[in-house]
Amino acid sequence: MTAGVVVVGSGQAGTTVATSLRDRGFDGSINLVGAEPHLPYERPPLSKQYLIDPDSQLDLNLRPADFYHDRDIRLQLGRTAVTIDRNKHSVLLDDGQTLDYTVLVLATGTRPLVPDLPGKALRGVHVLRTIDDAQRLRDEMVSSDHITAVGGGFIGMEMAAAAQKLGIQSCVLDIADRILQRAVTPTMSEYLTAFHRQRGTALHLGTGLTEIVGTNNRVSAVLTSTGKRIDTDTVVLAVGVRPNTEIASAAGLGVDNGIVVDNYLRTSDPNIFAIGDCANFPDAVSGRIRLESVQAATDHARLVANQIAGETVDPYLVVPWFWSHQGPMKLQIAGHTDRSDTDILRGDPTLGKFSVYRYTDGRLRAVESVNRPSDHVVARRLLAAGVSPTAEELTAVVDVRSLIPPVAITV
Asked: What is the rounded CA–CA span in Å between residue 239 and residue 220?
């Protein structure tokens, strides 16, 4: 049987698998299936640069169309994978086409959660995941007077920063008592809260959304769990995402907050991998984790491409890192932990340049940095080398670069 790869999902992860295979000399067939009709594109700018300039000609495409043609990567765009037949090694698409595979890669990503609220179908209510979502929102922002972001996570806060840049009044509602509660320390949440409030965004914390009120089928206000009415004409629901696991579950693959894979990103079926936002993989810190990160998607894709191409690989043990642009502020995070028992601050939040070093059970697990890119780079090197300076060492040094052992400098 001629070797063939089918990749379901044309985002960063899926596209990187396809392109990496050709870079490694793989000469079998490659079918890249994408539910959207667009060429594969970058998602991170959709909540940032893409919204800020309505006349922007920002090119989000990961590659031009002829790149895929020249490398014989067959794009199946605007197509949805319906079922997987594991016995026949085939995938059925919604147009009736059947794609045979030797190896199947699931890069199905996530979709936004939409709360079941009165008024959710009104004009002016948005989610932000795809380029079409962003285009609809961008078109409305040109004439919007007030935007309400529901959810104080990365998308909600980036939306608030975009509104600030455009001079649009905005507010953020979050049921938690601090923004980015699941992602950052209280110190970072406190800084970000002050940063956004100083720039004019109203933050309503410990506050849920109970109803979206409409006039003539158009958003006119929101009602909150605290009994407050906020006049607004645009609502962005950014309360989280759900991994797209239905096709995997129907095929009998393990699913638990994502598609369950081993530390080589292989599912319970040896011929099927899962990568990117939809993959739940082993992690030394948390036991298991699912990451929504361009870096993780890219690293997953390359590891899988190497295996398909017949290379010997090590288990996936890459230090994760993330970033978020919110106006002039750049937040970078190296490593991850869902808790920390000691947080050490270096720098001065009042100057907008600082880092928070997070320790769990005496070991450095993650570092959050605001406008300190050098700290971020050092943190990634320390974590990749397994180096955990003591709290005393970290507090005592003038330059954290001195803590990197010589062997880790080139990591």
From this structure: 20
